[in-house]
Amino acid sequence: MNGYIQIGTCGLNGSKAAYAELFSSVEIQLTFYQPPRLATLEKWRSEVPADFEFVLKAWQLITHPAKSPTYKRLKRTLSESERVDAGYFKPTSIVEEAWQVTLACARTLGAKTILFQCPASFSQTPEHISNLIQFFSQIDRNGFNCCWEPRGSWDKQVVKDLCEELDLWHVVDPFVQSTMTPERCYFRLHGREGWRYQYETDELADLAELLPKEDAGYVFFNNSRMKQDALTFKQLLKNHF
Fold first, then answer.
1. Which of 183, 238, 170, 229 is nearest to 1 (CA)?
2. What pLDDT score does 95 carry?
3. What pLDDT score was predicted for residue 195?
4. 5-240 CATH
5. Which residues contact 78 (CB under 8 A, 6 or more apart)?
6. How far is CA 53 from CA 104, 135, 144, 160, 240, in A?
7. Which of 37, 136, 158, 206 could crosslink 166 through cysteines, CB 3.0-4.6 Å?
8. Which pTM value belongs to this model?
9. Are 188 and 222 in contact (CB under 8 A)?
């Protein structure tokens, strides 16, 4: 396997320096709920090696409506109009502001890749598709990889066409559905029977077979045994591929 595959966990627990001794990449969660101050992110960047890669989730004000339970962790108080205008990639000032904040976070962390995780309520409707196309057609990506995780009911061909048109990576749990961008994979492992799950060795071997052989990709574990599973998977790739 000649592709450059980043392996890690969704979120950091404990020392960043200790984590960086085990993995070369992490998916940052805090930027989704409430982006930290840039000074805090600068400190994070200084605590890990220069080649360590931060991948971050875009601020929820871009993707999620204000009624989402995830807004409970939002420290900013939104006006009524902002609450109406937030989320679903709407062509509004609050979504544009959230993108600029996300962009500043990505630059500060030295990131290459940004994940846009959508709620299941962001379903395949003409309005949502229009918002998605307008957003990704108009933003200045500054060279970042933009990765889209649709979680509602979407037709595979529609997802494939949108990813091709908008130059997006399709983000999936590969044990739930297939990626429509297999040459640019971003896998998020949530546990096959729920969060309290540990992957078997043969399951991880199956996962390895899904990775691109020549291209880049990400594999982030988001289950209760995420650290252990990520380490096991990393060793498996090293030994057999």
1. 238
2. 98
3. 75
4. 3.20.20.410
5. 66, 86, 94
6. 16, 25, 13, 27, 24
7. 136
8. 0.95
9. yes
User: CA angle, corner 126, sides to 124 and 131, nearest 5?
Assistant: 90
Amino acid at 158: V
pLDDT recorded at residue 102: 97
Q: The tokens 């529609």 sit on which residue?
A: 158
d(CA 111, CA 175): 27
Full 3-state SS string of the chain: CCCCEEEEEECCCCCHHHHHHHCCEEEECHHHHCCCCHHHHHHHHHCCCCCCEEEEECCHHHHCCCCCHHHHHCCCCCCHHHHHHCCCCCCCHHHHHHHHHHHHHHHHHCCCEEEEECCCCCCCCHHHHHHHHHHHHHCCCCCCEEEEECCCCCCHHHHHHHHHHHCCEEEECCCCCCCCCCCCEEEEECCECECCCCCCHHHHHHHHHCCCCCCCEEEEECCCCHHHHHHHHHHHHHHHC
Question: What token pair was written down for 143?
Answer: 């060279």
**What residue spans define the domains of the chain?**
5-240
Looking at residue 4, what is its pLDDT?
81
Question: What is the pLDDT at residue 1?
Answer: 45
Query: Per the structure block, which two tokens stand in for 122?
Result: 């962001």
Instruction: Please list the ranges in the chain whose pLDDT falls under 70.
Output: 1-3, 241
pLDDT tens-digit map of 62-82: 999 999 999 999 998 999 999
